[in-house]
Each structure stands twice: as C-alpha cells, then as structure tokens.
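The protein record filed here:
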Amino acid sequence: MDIPAVRSEAAREGERAIVRDPLPTQGLLDFRVIELFFFAYREFTADADSILERYGFGRAHHRVLHFVNRDPGLTIAELLEILQITKQSLSRVLRQLIDEDFICQLPGDEDRRQRRLYPTKKGRALAVELSEAQARRIDASLAKTTDEDMRPIASFLKAMASDRASARDWFERKDITWKDPE
C-alpha cells in the first residue's frame, strides 16, 4: 500500500513565499515569443468573437463552421480527429449549428450510418464573414511583407501546428504550402 508523502510545513511555506522578481525575458524560456503568441491570438480571435456573439456562438462553433466549409461532406469522425475534441463536446455545438440551419447533416452515400456535414448557404455566409474579419487583420499585419518574407513565416506556423497527425493530414489533403502565384 502506497502512503502519500507528507510534505513538511517548511516545504509548504517555501512554496508560498512571495517572489518579487519578474521572469527573465531571455534565458531558459523566451517569454517574448510566448507573449507575442498570446497577444496575437487574442487579437486574431477578437474580431471573430464579436461576430459570433451576435449569434450566441463561441469559438467551438467557429472551428466547426470553418472545417465543414473547407471540406464539405466531412464526416463527424473526421471532424473529431481534426478538432481533437470529444463527441460530447462536439455534440452540443453541432446540434446548435444544425438546429439553426448553419450546417446540414446527411447520411453517407456508401455507408448510411455515416454522417456527413455540409454547410448551408447561411453557414457558408457566416464562415466567410468570420474569415474575412480575420483575413483583414492578417493582411494588415503582412502588408509590408514580401513573398520571400512569407515563406519562413508560413513554414514556422506550419511547424508549430504539425505535431498531431490530424493537422499533418489536413495540410497534405489541402496542399497547405506557400507558393508564388502562377
């Protein structure tokens, strides 16, 4: 039988000691990059959040709308794999999007038990509105960026997002690469 270790009062007191020095900017962890991601993500989502609020939706609704619009006919299983969420988490969001006519769920052609998701015109319009708000912010940020500058930015973001097989599969399926316009 394992007996939980009892920590001494002195050890607990040491954990509660006040620290007055800020974390260093550089060193073992580069907090500047972490903070850039924090503030960039906050602003990137803010425009879409204000649109979503009008519908009583949140970011989960946005993610579902985005991927269903990017790949109409996506199965629920594929969406779960992409979003890395539970069926229970998806169920509430998807039910609301279906009930309010943003998404339509149809049986699969070969396997009638399979459920495929399609955007409605209303769902497409909202997905485009949300994407336009975010694209404006991206475009403004990249306005002074050349195509040459964009390649390492895209490469960096892809590397950050590619830990999971579902993301790598998505990038391969959708050919997400930075190419010069032809």
Q: What stands out?
A: The radius of gyration is 22 Å. The first helix runs from residue 9 to 16. The chain has one domain: 29-141+148-172. The domain at 29-141+148-172 is CATH 1.10.10.10 (Arc Repressor Mutant, subunit A).
